[in-house]
Automatic annotation (TrEMBL):
Pfam families: LolB. Keywords: Cell outer membrane, Chaperone, Lipoprotein, Membrane, Palmitate, Protein transport, Signal, Transport. InterPro entries: LolA/LolB/LppX, OM_lipoprot_LolB. It comes from the Bacteria. PROSITE patterns: PROKAR_LIPOPROTEIN. Belongs to the LolB family. It comes from Tatumella terrea. Plays a critical role in the incorporation of lipoproteins in the outer membrane after they are released by the LolA protein. This is Outer-membrane lipoprotein LolB. The lineage of its organism: Bacteria, Pseudomonadati, Pseudomonadota, Gammaproteobacteria, Enterobacterales. It is found in: Cell outer membrane. Its main location: membrane.
């Protein structure tokens, strides 16, 4: 069992991360998902196959609170690496996927192999993360969401997704404007009492 499940780490990030969206400007009524501007934005985002993004991660539930720095490196649509680190910069978890093969290395160096990243993370850390759709939401794409809305800039604002009887509500509070196309800077997922937040400090497109 990974230490992630036994308690929180990188606690000083909590207040900064959870209050990040409090200062964001209010959003207007948004634009239509049928608009050509949205379709153009989607096409541009789908061209982003290789990238790196760093920032802060928070997982808050009734059972555990986890706060970490994250580093997400994707070299192809089916190949990526996710690293979670503690305040000292030590790796708490490294997840590597290549096609249908998933490998997770914990903070003791122990390796686990699976063909289902979401299930493996849940079993080893206790964190319920809709990873496949999260990979789309973090780019500002709706994934397999049941419904979604846009902001005034024809970018994804909210989405609703149901999985295994659980309803996820997705909110993108802000976008990074220093990359083209613009990509999310503040993402929040909620499902009942569960809350997941990602704050993207930087994006590097390759």
């Amino acid at each position: 069992m990974l230490n992630l499940r036994r308690g929180a780490f990188l606690v000083p990030l909590a207040s900064l991360l959870l209050s990040a969206c409090a200062t964001l400007p209010s959003q207007g009524p948004g634009k239509s998902p049928d608009s050509p501007q949205w379709k153009q934005h989607v096409n541009e985002v789908k061209q982003v196959q290789a990238f790196q993004t760093r920032g802060a991660f928070a997982y808050i539930s009734q059972r555990q609170n986890v706060y970490a720095r994250y580093n997400w490196q994707q070299s192809a649509s089916d190949r990526y690496r996710l690293i979670l680190t503690n305040p000292l910069g030590s790796t708490e978890m490294q997840l590597d996927t290549q096609g249908q093969t998933v490998q997770l290395v914990d903070n003791t160096g122990k390796r686990y192999i699976s063909n289902n990243a979401t299930k493996m993370i849940s079993e080893l850390t206790g964190m319920n993360i809709p990873l496949e759709n999260l990979r789309q939401w973090m780019l500002g794409l709706p994934g397999t969401a049941d419904s979604f809305t846009l902001n005034d800039h024809y970018q994804l604002r909210t989405a609703t997704y149901q999985q295994d009887g659980q309803t996820w509500h997705v909110t993108i509070n802000d976008y990074k404007q220093d990359v083209t196309p613009a990509l999310p800077a503040d993402l929040e997922l909620t499902a009942g009492n569960l809350r997941i937040k990602l704050r993207m400090d930087s994006w590097k497109l390759q």
